[in-house]
Design a protein that fits this description.
The protein has about 400 residues and is of the alpha+beta class. It is about 15% helix and about 35% strand. The protein has three domains: about 110 residues, no CATH class; about 80 residues, no CATH class; about 160 residues, no CATH class.
Length: about 400
């Protein structure tokens, strides 16, 4: 196998020759570059110059300024360190562990063999220093709190409800509006939404195996079937308009499920994005999705909205759709189409109504990207006039 390293190192050195002066994070080592920097392939085991190590081993993917824009083209973006918030914990020890072990299934290599523990730690401190000052976890303190920016953590998640599995690859996204989003990371699937405190991390001492204890109150659990995927596509036959996004309603061709494969998480301007590829059954990439969620309300109805930014990769007239489970099947109260979306109202056990506005199917006809939204609202018992008032209050 060809190492991406050899190639990327040349690129990085070439870039340095170009006279670019990389910014140095404030908290990094100030020691001058050492001979190891000139022969980056073989770091000196005693070398503790974090900047030199970073420039020679990491910058090609993460960027010289830590902005995630390295020279090496990657199938998924390398992490930008500028916004802080590390998926596997924010302490130098936790980040050093990520550096040592790498991130399986992503281009992030492990450096356990090539760097000493002291070097891993020095690099951890160096990349943390790229980010803003953080509320660092003190030893013994395990509760993670969302501060000025969203937090993303990965680890084992306990079953979200009775009968659901334990998830060794869980992902929690804590947002500034007090909602946290509980995901299965591989395949990517939103499992539930919580409100309140974020996460306790109980480190079991395994590599990357930190167990997460979500602290927020579960406000929503996605309807769920193990064998089902959340995305599917159908060939767009003829000129018929894209059908609604809820199965059982769309006539015509059968849906082919797509696998959602995690690429990265990203925090931009206070919004956390989960980015994934949709792959067909032969493993071919159909589209890239950037998913984000936020609290959302219309009049007396409160809930949340998921936003999917869709970038077609293969554009052959495919209709991409969310295969939403109908919630509370058998208790459907109303169904109507407005604002280009299908709205389904079901009754919850406590008599209140749940409103789901499914995103319309997205036509991957040309390579134009687009955005679809999925709205979940909860509120009062549904009465005759509810539909009218709900629509009136639409933004
Ligand atoms: C071949 C490209 C590549 C190289 C070289 C590389 N990384 Fe990464 N790194 C990535 C990618 C891609 C990710 C994001 C993986 C993901 O979560 O999807 C990542 C993620 C990380 C993370 C995890 C961030 C988080 O959210 O927890 C850390 C820390 C990190 N890299 C540090 C380093 C350090 C330090 C070096 C050099 C010693 C390095 N990386 C070298 C590609 C690279």
């Amino acid at each position: 196998m060809k190492s991406p390293f050899a190639l990327s190192l040349c690129l990085v050195l070439a870039a340095c020759d170009g006279g670019e002066v990389p910014a140095e994070p404030t908290g990094g080592s100030n020691r001058p570059a050492s001979p190891a920097a000139q022969d980056p392939a073989v770091p000196n085991p005693d070398e503790l110059d974090a900047k030199a190590l970073y420039m020679s081993l990491c910058a090609m993917c993460h960027g010289e300024t830590g902005d995630g824009k390295g020279m090496v083209p990657l199938d998924r973006p390398a992490r930008s360190f500028l916004s802080g918030g590390f998926s596997f914990g924010n302490t130098p020890t936790a980040v050093a562990r990520t550096i040592a072990s790498g991130i399986g299934g992503t281009p992030m290599p492990g450096f356990a063999e090539s760097l000493t523990e002291a070097q891993q730690l020095a690099l951890a401190e160096y990349v943390i220093a790229f980010g803003p000052e953080q509320n660092e976890l003190l030893p013994g303190e395990t509760e993670m709190q969302v501060g000025e920016r969203p937090l993303v953590v990965r680890g084992t998640l306990p079953p979200i409800a009775d009968g659901r599995p334990l998830l060794p690859r869980g992902l929690m996204v804590g947002c500034l509006d007090g909602l946290s989003w509980e995901y299965e990371a591989q395949p990517v699937r939103l499992l539930g939404v919580r409100q309140g405190d974020f996460v306790n991390r109980a480190d079991w001492g395994e590599r990357g195996g930190a167990a997460l204890e979500p602290l927020g109150r579960l406000v929503y659990t996605m309807a769920w079937e193990e064998a089902r995927s959340d995305w599917a596509w159908t060939p767009a036959l003829g000129t018929g308009s894209p059908g609604p996004g809820i199965p059982g309603r769309a006539g015509g061709a059968p849906e082919m499920p797509l696998t959602a494969q995690l690429k990265a998480t990203e925090i931009v301007d206070g919004v956390a994005f989960v980015e994934y590829s949709l792959l067909d059954s032969s493993g071919q990439e159909i589209a890239l999705i950037r998913e984000s969620g936020q609290a959302f309300s219309i009049g007396n109805w409160a809930g949340f909205q998921l936003v999917f930014e869709i970038e077609p990769v293969r554009a052959e007239g495919l209709l991409l759709r969310r295969t939403l489970q109908e919630v509370g099947k058998g208790h459907e109260l109303a169904r109507f189409t407005k604002t280009g979306q299908e709205w389904v109202v079901t009754q919850r056990a406590d008599g209140s109504a749940e409103v789901l506005a499914a995103p319309p199917a997205f036509l991957l006809a040309d390579a134009a990207p687009g955005v679809v939204e999925e709205t979940h609202l909860f509120g009062l018992p549904w009465i005759e006039t509810s539909e009218a008032t709900l629509m009136e209050d639409l933004p």
